[in-house]
Amino acid sequence: MELRLFNTLKRQKQQFFPIDPQRVRLYCCGPTVYDRAHVGNARPVVVFDVLFRLLRHFYGSQHVIYVRNITDIDDRIIEAAHNNNESITALTARTARAYQLDMAALGTLPPTHEPRATEYIQPMVDMIMGLVDKGFAYENQGHVLFHVPADPDYGCLSKRPFEEMIAGARVEIAPYKKHPADFVLWKPSSQEQPGWDSPWGRGRPGWHIECSAMAGALLGEVFDIHGGGLDLIFPHHENEIAQSRCAHHGHAPVRYWIHNGFVQVNSEKMSKSKGNFFTVRQLLDQGYAGETIRLNLLAAHYRQPLDISSASLQDSKQQLDKFYLSLQDVPYNTPVNAQIPAEFFEIIGDDLNTPLAITWIHDQVNAIHKAKDSAQKLLLQVQLKQAASLLGILQQSPANWLQQIGQAGNVNSLDADAIERFIQERRQARLAKDFKKADHIRQHLENKGIILEDNPAGTRWRRI
RNA sequence: GGCCCGGUGGCAGAAUGGCCAUGCAGAGGAUUGCAAAUCCUUCAACGUCGGUUCGAUUCCGGCCCGGGCCUCCA
Fold first, then answer.
1. Are A212 and A247 in contact (CB under 8 A)?
2. How far is it, in rounded angstroms, from Cα A310 to Cα A313?
3. What pairs with residue A339 in β-bridges?
4. Bridge partners (DSSP) listed for residue A24
5. CA of A168 to C1' of B70 (A)
C-alpha cells in the first residue's frame, strides 16, 4: 500500500516512508485537562486513530508507537482549579479520566503512551538548560526565553516571513523579552502557584516545551509524524520545531506534519472562547452513539472544515443503520478467506480520504444486497467489516446496534421481552388472517419507535 | 495590517481538463396481505468576470463572499 499524506511542511501530498519500519512513530498533541473535551477536540483524535489503525495494519501493531500527551500543568488549569475550589491534582485526574472515557466512546484505540507533562519536568529542565548553554535561550527576571532571532530556520512550518510576523502582529510585549517574538520556556511561580525547583528558581514550564521534551524522551530526536489542529501550526508547532531542532543537533524533529481543519457550528470554528461548543459527553447523553459521532467526524476530509449539527449526526446515524442492516445474518463461524480490496487502500491511502472510503462502503453494501449466492455475499460482508475496522466502525453485532447501541435515544420505550411478546401475538393474528389486528400491533410498536420487518424466516425488529 | 484556506445540485460531500461521484431528501416503478428492508428509473451543481485550451467545475489571473491564524485554542 502506498500512503500519501499532506505534509504541512511542504504544503503538498508526499508519499510516506517511515524512518524505521520496525518503529513507526507518531505524536499527537493531546488535551489540556481543565475541562471536558468538545467535539472539535475530538476530531484530531479520531483522524489520528484512523491513521494509527492504518499504520498498524500495514507495519504490524507492535511496530507503531503512538504518543498523545496529557497537559496537566497550565495556567488555565490553575485558574479552573481555583474557580472550582478543587485541588489541581483532583481536577486533572478527574478531567483526564473523563477525556479517556469520551475518546474510548468514540471508538479510538488508546495510544501507546499517554505521558503527563508533570512527569516530564526534569526532561524539560534539561532541554531548557541545553538551549541556554547553546545560546538559543536566555534567562531574565526568573523567566527563561527562547530567542527567536537565534534560529535562522524559524518560520519553516508556518511560512511566516519573520519581519512580517512582527509587523502589525499582536505579540505580547514583555519587559523581560529581548525580542517581541521570543517565547517562554520557563516562568516563575508564586507561592500559591504550582512550581518545581530549577536552576532559575521555583517555576513551571511554558506551553510549548512539554511536547518537545515528551516527544524527545519517548520517540527520539527525530520521528515520523506529528499532528494536531490547524490552529496549532503557529505558534505551538513552530515553537516546538525551533526548540527541538536547536536542542537536538540541528535535526528537524518531525518528517511529516499533518493538521486537521476545524469542526464548525454554523460555519464558524467551534471553540471554547467563542462558547459555541458542545462536548462529546453532551452528545452521548443526548442519545447519539459514539460510533455515530465518529462517522460524522469522518464524513468530511480531515483537512476540510466540518459543520456538525443534529442534522449531520442524524445523517450519520442513518448511514450506520443502513450499513448494519447489510451485515445481518453473517454466519461468522464460517471460515472465509477474505482480504480488504486494494481499491480501499488506494482510497484511504490517499491522504486519508475518509469520505470516499465511506462511499466505497455504500458501494459494498449495495453489492452485498445484490450478491447472487450466499458464499459471495459472505465474502463481501467480511470484506466490509475488515475495511470498516480501519475506520473504526461497524465492529459490533448488527442486532446490538439496531436494537440498542445505535438507538440509545430510544432504548427505554419498550424492552426486548415486551417486543417479542407483541411479535408472537401478531404472528398468531397473521396466521389467523386477522390482518387488522396484525397491523394494529405493527402501528402500536411503530409509535414506540419499533420497526418490524417480516421476512420468510420470521419477523425481525429494530429501533429507530 | 501581515499570512493562509475555501466557495460543487434542496442538504451533506468527493473526484476530475472532455463521459456516472456517493448519501440524504424529492418524483416514478418493482417487491410486500399491509409494511419495513431492498432493487430499478429519474430530477438536479460546479460564486463571479476574464485568460489558456479543440474543450474547463477542474489550470491561470482579477473581483465578490465566507472562514481561519497572527492572543488561550484541536
1. yes
2. 5
3. none
4. A64
5. 9
Residue A422 has what pLDDT? Answer: 97
* Distance, CA of A305 to C1' of B47, in Å: 18
The C-alpha cell at A76 is 488555565
- Nucleotide B32's nearest residue (CA vs C1') is A454
Query: Amino acid letter at A388?
Result: A
- What nucleotides of chain B have any atom within 7 angstroms of a protein Cβ? 1-6, 11-15, 21-24, 32-40, 66-74
CATH 3.40.50.620 given to domain A286-407: no
Domain segments of chain A: what residues? Answer: 4-264, 286-407, 412-463
Q: Does domain A4-264 have CATH number 3.40.50.620?
A: yes
Distance, CA of A26 to CA of A18 (rounded, Å): 10
Nucleotide nearest to A35 (CA to C1'): B73
Helix (H) or strand (E) holding A203: strand A203-205
Q: Given its phi and psi angles, is residue A433 left (phi above 0), alpha (psi -120 to 50 degrees) or beta?
A: left
Nearest to A326 by CA among A383, A365, A367: A365
Which residue is nearest to the C1' sugar atom of B69, using CA? Answer: A231
| Residue A190 CA, nucleotide B5 C1', distance (Å) | 42
User: How many Å from the CA of A332 to C1' of B10?
Assistant: 41
Q: Cell numbers 525547583 correspond to what residue?
A: A197
Per DSSP, the three-state class of A91 is helix
- pLDDT tens digits, residue range A293-332? 999 999 999 999 999 999 999 999 999 999 999 999 877 6
Q: Which residue is nearest to nucleotide B39 (CA to C1')?
A: A370
Contact A308, A264 (CB under 8 A): yes
Protein residue closest to B14, using CA and C1': A356
For residue A245, give the amino acid letter. R
Q: pLDDT under 70 in chain A at which residues?
A: 162-173, 332
pLDDT in tens, A99-145: 999 999 999 999 999 999 999 999 999 999 999 999 999 999 999 99
Nucleotide closest in space to A429 (CA vs C1'): B33
CA dist A353 and A356 (Å) reads 6
Separation in Å: B16 C1' and A158 CA: 30
The three cell numbers of residue A138 are 536566555
Strands A24-28 and A12-15: unpaired
